[in-house]
Design goal:
- The chain is an alpha+beta fold and 367 residues long.
- It contains ten helices and twelve strands.
- The protein has three domains: 117 residues, Beta-Lactamase; 80 residues, Orthogonal Bundle (Helix Hairpins); 165 residues, Histidine kinase-like ATPase, C-terminal domain (Heat Shock Protein 90).
- The protein is elongated and about 100 Å long.
- The termini are far apart.
């Protein structure tokens, strides 16, 4: 190969969006590009050694499942004719797609192996978000079509129950039955309100609002008469948020109630509200936000359920009027999305859970 062709090939190699690693038949490193080193945070002095064993150790420390990663490499060394494509999860939350194929000459002689690594974190996050949006869209179509009519019907039912109770003596045997019917009807109306919140028709009515007041009032209202205490930490000059105060209050109420239930109504919930700058991601644009995190020290959420907790009708509670409908966190997610924000959850089973809500901030107000 002449010098000009080699220079063009080298330029393409370095310009690749993929991290590339090439090894010979003895699995010694022949070539890597700068993208590979940056993706895996391989220091220049380590890269210069071209030692495959040392680089693998550097990579393994970053993986959530290093054993599977290493087992796959060993398998391909035993069967060099195979190709491979899999996803790799890193401890820092990134996801890499890894493709590997054998290198052969025109006589099909094995010359080594080439590995391609592509960071698909944002693509994967967008796919997961699109899946969630499709689920919400299905519930939205359903709720938008029936919720208003159902609410009108329940209003008539509850009105007639109330009138019946008014005309009956308190010792009448029908009274407790009607009272239970009224209780069930009110719970049905509460479910209808949740469906309406999920509906596209229920857009937030926004105005400049101070979240510190909403947080203080909601904590006081929900927890003052219980054994649960609320530890508040808020920036002195917390930025206002352009939001629907009633809907954001519902978000805070639900997250506090969940935290209280997780701790079996005893313990301390930590609420932190602060101004933050976001660098931008697949979920949020770059800009200033108000962050509200609500942490408990309760039972935690099993890892297998973390990806599903915002799904409509998913709940680990016993379904029922007094326990849950599986719509609470779906409603919270819907409200936050409609406000241009995001909600994330971190949890360790047996240790506790933290929900973090980000909402676009306005100008900083004086305290």
């Amino acid at each position: 190969m002449d010098q000009q062709k080699f220079a063009i090939l080298q330029s393409q190699f370095e310009a690749s969006w993929d991290g590339i690693l090439v090894v010979d038949p003895d699995n010694k490193i022949i070539l890597t590009n700068d993208r590979f080193h940056r993706m895996w945070s391989i220091a220049p002095h380590i890269a210069a050694l071209r030692d495959d064993a040392i680089q693998i150790r550097t990579i393994l420390d970053q993986l959530t499942d290093p054993d599977t990663f290493l087992a796959r490499i060993q398998h391909l060394r035993q069967y060099p004719e195979e190709t491979s494509l899999e996803l790799i999860s890193l401890k820092d939350g990134r996801t890499f797609e890894r493709y590997s194929a054998p290198l052969t000459d025109m006589d099909n002689k094995y010359l080594g192996r080439i590995w391609y690594f592509r960071d698909i974190t944002q693509t994967k996050d967008m796919e997961e978000e699109m899946l969630k949006l499709k689920k919400f869209e299905s519930v939205s179509v359903l709720s938008g079509g029936i919720a208003h009519d159902f609410n009108n019907i329940m209003t008539a039912v509850l009105g007639n129950i109330q009138l019946s109770l008014f005309h009956l003596d308190q010792d009448n045997k029908a009274v407790p039955l009607l009272q239970e019917a009224r209780k069930a009807g009110m719970q049905a109306q509460a479910l209808t309100r949740q469906l309406l919140t999920l509906s596209r028709k229920n857009a937030p009515v926004k105005q400049e609002t101070r979240l510190d007041r909403i947080i203080k009032d909601t904590c006081s209202f929900l927890l003052d008469t219980s054994n649960v205490r609320c530890k508040l930490s808020m920036d002195e000059k917390l930025s206002p948020v352009d939001c629907d105060g009633k809907q954001i209050t519902e978000v805070i109420q639900h997250l506090l109630t969940n935290a209280s239930q997780a701790m079996k109504y005893s313990g301390t919930i930590t609420v932190i509200a602060e101004n933050v700058s976001h660098q931008g991601s697949s979920k949020l644009p770059q800009g200033d936000f108000v962050s509200v995190s609500i942490s408990d020290h309760g039972c935690g959420i099993p890892a297998k359920n973390l990806d599903r907790i915002f799904d409509p009708y998913f709940t680990t509670k016993t379904l029922g009027a007094d326990q849950g409908t599986g719509l609470g966190l779906a409603v919270v997610h819907s409200i936050v999305n409609k406000h241009g924000g995001s909600i994330e959850v971190e949890s360790q089973e047996g240790e506790g859970t933290t929900f973090k809500v980000l909402l676009p901030a306005g100008k900083v107000l004086s305290p």
